[in-house]
């Protein structure tokens, strides 16, 4: 088979790799139908996270089951499936509490920008769709593997409730999916923080009611102005830089909550500031698996169309161009088809 391998910053190659094989009786092998490049892949591409050896890359996938191990009972060959970027058993205490991304047996998926993918703990990780999806549903189903599930978790972690005023920091695919999630959970007002016109437009189409272009202290001031000096009830932090985190914390009203899903890079939160802010903070890698059944149903029944975050579709063998386009912000998110 063929797949993407990152060799060094800005050096992603599409190359022959050995076909994955069933290693454990709980594994499945899937043939990828669509995969994509994640904002978190760019941390490696840009050299922010080190690349020490050539490494297969990619963790977002949908596909058709080719083969399952002897112990797999919930999915079977031929089914169209979606799984999280963390494999999980879905049975341990953390999974049962809804935190599958902290599963005691979790395994981070990697090498999914490829023709074939080995999925560990297939029963706990994969969810099959009711039948083979129509082609136009595939981009939206693919977002459930990470970005839409992550946006959903950001909104859940920020405790978005009907009537809430929500601010979303970050206009990447996760932030835009956070807008969808906030709206779906009943937010009355959704303030999207974005400087990029195409992303602003998409945020408004997804249900944002206001756009704030300012950042940092100016962004915080603008949120306060828009909320009668109070601050937002819920803030979704979808970037992971220190600036975006400070902006999120300071945009939240006392008693409000920040849901943070941007992988932190250099974030430093002084305990005393947090103490006096009265702001609740919950985040981490999203337990995407917990939301898959509900989100699949929402996509299947046309209640949400997060696949619109993909503004570039390329054949999988052009994966290097997908990285370049996202790195240069020519694309919000690139979808790859084998
Ligand atoms: Zn578990």
TrEMBL record:
What the entry lists under InterPro entries is as follows:
ADH-like_C, ADH-like_N, ADH_Zn_CS, ER, GroES-like_sf, NAD(P)-bd_dom_sf
The record's family statement is: Belongs to the zinc-containing alcohol dehydrogenase family.
Species source reads Actinoallomurus spadix
What is the name listed in the Swiss-Prot or TrEMBL entry for this protein? Zinc-dependent alcohol dehydrogenase family protein
Could you confirm whether the keyword Oxidoreductase appears in this record? yes
Q: Which UniProt keywords apply?
A: Metal-binding, Oxidoreductase, Zinc
Domain Enoyl reductase (ER) stretches = 7-336
Fetch the Gene3D superfamilies from UniProt: Medium-chain alcohol dehydrogenases, catalytic domain (3.90.180.10), NAD(P)-binding Rossmann-like Domain (3.40.50.720)
Cofactor(s) of this protein: Zn(2+)
């Amino acid at each position: 088979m063929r797949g993407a391998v990152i060799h060094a910053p800005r050096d992603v190659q599409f190359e022959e790799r050995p076909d994955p094989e069933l290693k454990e009786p709980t594994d499945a092998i899937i043939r990828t139908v669509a995969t994509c490049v994640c904002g978190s892949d760019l941390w490696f591409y840009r050299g922010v996270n080190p690349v020490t050896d050539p490494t297969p890359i990619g963790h977002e996938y949908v596909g058709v089951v080719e083969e399952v191990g002897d112990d797999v009972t919930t999915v079977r060959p031929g089914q169209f499936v979606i799984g999280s970027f963390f494999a999980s058993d879905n049975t341990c205490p953390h999974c049962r509490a809804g935190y599958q991304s902290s599963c005691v047996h979790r395994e981070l998926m990697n090498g999914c920008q490829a023709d074939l993918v080995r999925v560990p703990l297939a029963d706990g990780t994969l969810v099959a769709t009711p039948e083979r999806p129509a082609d136009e549903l595939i981009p939206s189903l693919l977002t459930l593997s990470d970005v839409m599930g992550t946006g959903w978790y950001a909104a859940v972690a920020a405790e978005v409730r009907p009537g809430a005023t929500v601010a979303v920091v970050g206009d990447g695919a996760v932030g835009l999916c956070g807008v969808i999630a906030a709206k779906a959970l009943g937010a009355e007002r959704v303030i999207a923080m974005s400087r990029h016109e195409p992303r602003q437009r998409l945020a408004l189409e997804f249900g944002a009611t206001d756009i704030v272009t300012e950042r940092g202290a100016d962004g915080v001031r603008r949120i306060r102005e828009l909320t009668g000096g109070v601050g937002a009830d819920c803030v979704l932090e979808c970037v992971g830089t220190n600036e975006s985190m400070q902006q999120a914390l300071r945009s939240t009203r006392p008693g409000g909550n920040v849901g943070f899903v941007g992988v932190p890079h250099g974030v430093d939160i002084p305990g005393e500031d947090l103490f006096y802010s009265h702001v609740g903070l919950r985040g981490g890698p999203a337990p995407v698996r917990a939301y898959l059944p509900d989100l699949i149903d929402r996509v299947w029944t046309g209640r949400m169309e997060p696949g619109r975050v993909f503004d570039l579709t390329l054949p999988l063998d052009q994966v290097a161009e997908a990285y370049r386009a996202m790195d240069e912000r020519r694309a919000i998110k690139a979808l790859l088809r084998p």
